[in-house]
Amino acid sequence: MAEQSAQEKTEEPTAKRLDEARNKGQVPRSRELTTVMVLIASAVALLFMGKNIIASMAQVMNKSFSFTRKELFDPMAMIHHFIYTIETIAFDLSMFLGVTVLAALAAPALIGGWNFSAQAMAPKGERMDPLKGLKRIFGPQGLIELAKALGKFILVGVISTAILWSIRDQLLTLGRQEVNVAMADLGYLTMWVFLAICASLILIALIDVPFQIWNHNRQLRMTKQEVKDEMKETDGNPEVKGRIRRMQVELSQQRMMQDIPSADVVITNPTHYAVALRYDQTKTGAPVVVAKGADFISQQIRLVAEHNDVPILSAPPLTRAVYYSTEIGDEIPSGLYIAVAQVLAFVFQLRRYHKTGGNKPNLNPDDLPIPDELRRD
Fold first, then answer.
1. Dihedrals φ, ψ of 66, to 5°?
2. Where is the chain membrane-spanning (predicted)?
């Protein structure tokens, strides 16, 4: 059961999986959306440009079916008529075709976007496989397409019947009008009926677009093992990454231990935390944390400090404040300047005392000034 569940495609496709599918040309597409947009664009274009197109075509037909005796024997007459036809209808037809082409190009951009990758545009032999073609026709996808076709047929039939029934009086009055007026009214009604029928197909598109997006994601779903394998390929093997992190920590600790002998003082908690501080009097910067650690690392810091005669001072509040507020290699925050300055002054005085004698310096670590926002209990 565990092996079977691991092989079930229950995981949503990752970004990498979606990108790979897109490069192969596998993106969500809705033919219904493209069809609806092209039909509606054509209907709207006809509604605004249909009069000019019809007038241009009527002008061309009138010119083409009326000619003189001289034109009958002129071998160039056909060429002249052809040029006249192109000049007369080219602009209106190009505007109409331009609108439909723009609609056909805009539809894919709304769902899935355009895809011009070489892999996507390369010919695929598997699409010419008749067996796979039959499988698509008689498979679930074929049944879905059949259901959509029946739905469109029923919807268009119902809408068309309702529209024709609503304008039946106008259609009946066309027979009592003059021919030119009747033809104009019939063309006007036809264009509005065509637009209404095309608009009714929006319902099919509104159902098909979410379905195509869902079906696209369903086809790209992954098993849990595939997700794990992809994470290994993308981020690297977790075991290798863990080993690298451990090595980085070990190298960092080695460098940190090597810097402890250069510290001026090591302040402790006294057992849980240890922080090594260094102050370069030749520079204008603040004291720097050269090493810090907790528990076992703090013990190692103290041992290295003792071995190299670095003073160790128990100052629990200050140690915790520096440990939590400053990273290795960074300067201490300004709020701890006075407290650290007192500690360093005590250490320097203590060195002088051991060399020259005199009054032994004294410091109460619990009275060091530490701001409330930097205190850690």
1. -125, 115
2. 33-51, 97-122, 143-167, 187-211
Give the C-alpha separation, 77 to 88, whole Å.
Answer: 16
How far apart CA 170 and CA 182 sit, in angstroms, is 10
- Adjacency order of strands within the sheet including 265-268: 288-294, 273-278, 265-268, 312-314
- pTM beyond 0.85, yes or no: no
Helix (H), strand (E), coil (C) string for 108-150: HHHCCCCCCCHHHHCCCHHHHCHHHHHHHHHCHHHHHHHHHHH
Contact assessment for residue 295 and residue 339, using Cβ atoms and an 8 Å cutoff: no
pLDDT at residue 236 in the model: 57
Q: All domains of the chain, ordered by start, with CATH?
A: 15-113+131-233 (no CATH), 260-374 (3.40.1690.10)
Highest-pLDDT range among 10-19, 212-221, 251-260: 212-221
Pairing of β 265-268 and β 273-278:
antiparallel
Contact of 264 with 347, CB cutoff 8 Å: yes
**What pLDDT does residue 149 have?**
80
Share of the chain above pLDDT 90, in %: 1
**Which DSSP string corresponds to 155-204?**
HHHHHHHHHHHHTHHHHHHGGGS-HHHHHHHHHHHHHHHHHHHHHHTHHH
Determine contact, residues 91/22, Cβ cutoff 8 Å.
no
pLDDT higher at 343 or 149: 343
Task: Name the nearest CA neighbour of 50 among 96, 117, 88, 84.
Answer: 96
| Amino acid type, 19 | D
